[in-house]
Amino acid sequence: MSAHYFYRRLQVAAFALLAIVLAPPSYGGENTPNQAASNGKLRITGAASLVPLVSEIARRFEESHPGVKIEVRGGGTARGLADLRSGASDIGMVALSLGDRGRDLFRFPIARDGIAVIVNAQNNLRALDSNTLSDILTGKITNWKALGGPDAPLVLALGPEGGGSSEIFAQHLKLQHAQLAPHTPIITTEDAIAFVSKKPNGLAVGSIGVVERSARAGAPIKLIAYNGFPATSRTVENHLYALTRPLALISRKAPEGLQKQFIDYALSPTLIDLQLKYGFVPYRD
Fold first, then answer.
1. Are residues 102 and 87 in the same domain?
2. Same domain, yes or no, for 102 and 121?
3. Which structural domain range is residue 86 located in?
4. With 0-12 CB in 10 A as exposed, 13-18 as middle and 19+ as buried, what is 56?
5. Cα separation of 95 and 46, whole Å?
6. Which of 1, 28, 94, 124 lies deepest, with the highest CB count within 10 Å?
7. Cα dist. 136→23, 142, 191, 192, 247 in Å?
8. Highest mean pLDDT among 96-100, 166-170, 248-252
9. 42-51, 146-155, 173-182, 193-202: which range is least confident on average?
10. Are residues 154 and 209 in the same domain?
11. Residue 115's beta-bridge partner residues?
12. CB of 132 within 8 A of CB of 86?
């Protein structure tokens, strides 16, 4: 069992025990984090898909700690790793399983998400299997006609090497970034949504949680079923959808002080409402 995994389990267990033993009587109000931190600053950077969730967690934390200021910025998982290791941030946000790259880091999963293949709402594509998706991503399929669509070029938009989607492809499709077909480089799921919204012949990938929210808000996009299961938060929660990933906070060493208080709070069960609000699945692995 890794030190990271053991620390997190011990941390969650300790939090749960303290919550039971020390919790004050309930008067119908919202639970608040530990009041011990009275001032200080934290800088958190990394995965763009985590920015809305972690920003709202930070605002709740600040409300109970008026002297604390927390800055949350995106830029991608790769930036989160780089900023953390260089000391430019106190906490990183990553949207992947770190594997060997994270052996020197402490990882604290706060939610689970999936990667969805998305197309324009006018596209008649409904489902893909792993072989067909691999053929699309590597350029073996370059025209929608091969997928039962019109005679039109298939144009891709994909994230950077080292990002969450690249990690998913490496794990599930055994594809390295260098094997991917020519594509428009994007950073965030919002970029992917904008790309397919404007391009009826476009295909991109992004966070299921983010894409579902945008589709409900009226974005002209569609999530594509994968290997027989729809790309939804429910199939991610039920472990039916294959292209999933943990969303985690990371630190360079065992957290302490304000850093520890914030991570403990982010892991607390009082924040499940925010995870669900942003279309993510509570992390129960």
1. yes
2. no
3. 3-112+246-282
4. middle
5. 9
6. 94
7. 53, 7, 19, 16, 26
8. 248-252
9. 173-182
10. yes
11. 207
12. no
Give me the mean pLDDT over the 85-104 stretch: 85
The CA distance from 238 to 223, in Å, is 18
| Paired tokens of 218 | 């009226």
272-282, pLDDT tens digit by residue?
A: 899 888 888 88
Please give the structure tokens belonging to residue 227: 């290997």
Q: Residues 119, 227: one domain?
A: yes
Here the tokens at position 153 are 């070029």
Query: At residue 10, what is the residue type?
Result: L
Range 27-38 average pLDDT: 41
Q: How many domains does the chain have?
A: 2
Q: Which of 219, 157, 167, 156 is nearest to 188 (CA)?
A: 157
pLDDT tens, residue by residue, 222-279? 999 999 999 999 999 889 999 998 899 999 999 999 999 999 999 998 888 998 888 8
CA 186, 187, 188, 192: dihedral to nearest 10 degrees? 10
Question: Are residues 214 and 253 both part of a single domain?
Answer: no
Distance, CA of 6 to CA of 1 (rounded, Å): 7
> What is the rounded distance in angstroms from the CA atom of residue 49 to the CA atom of residue 55?
11
- Contact 133/117 with Cβ under 8 angstroms? yes
Are β-strands 106-120 and 281-282 bridged in parallel, bridged antiparallel, or unpaired?
A: antiparallel
CATH number where 188 lies: 3.40.190.10
**94 and 178 both lie in a single domain:** no
Pair (135, 108) in one structural domain: no
